[in-house]
Amino acid sequence: MIFSPLPGKPLITQGFGQNPSLYAPFGFQGHDGIDYGCPEGTKVYAPHDGVCTVKDDGTKNYGLSVTIDDGKRRSLLAHLSQAHVTNGQFISQGDPVAKSGKSGNATGPHLHWCFKIVKNVVLHNKTN
Question: What is the mean pLDDT of residues 27-45?
Fold first, then answer.
């Protein structure tokens, strides 16, 4: 089971697969996740257990992001303002991992959540 990375019933501002023409330059057939509208600094929680990887693309791509991987599932939480985890850290579902923001290629504050299935060490549905 996975949980939403935000508490309550967050507002979805862009769904998976939407706006294919905007994402074609990135090699995607559409938006590769779900965007939740939320104020900068909103606490973000782990949707499932796993090992964390923190990456900072600066003003490009996903900006500051945290990837959580358990070998079967991979979540990317992006456009963050802060990360509360470190590379290689194991976290449990529901643990606070970051704060939302507008880093990277973002038009405003939100949380981008990309969820993928991993089978036999191969990431499935890589390009949507």
Answer: 88
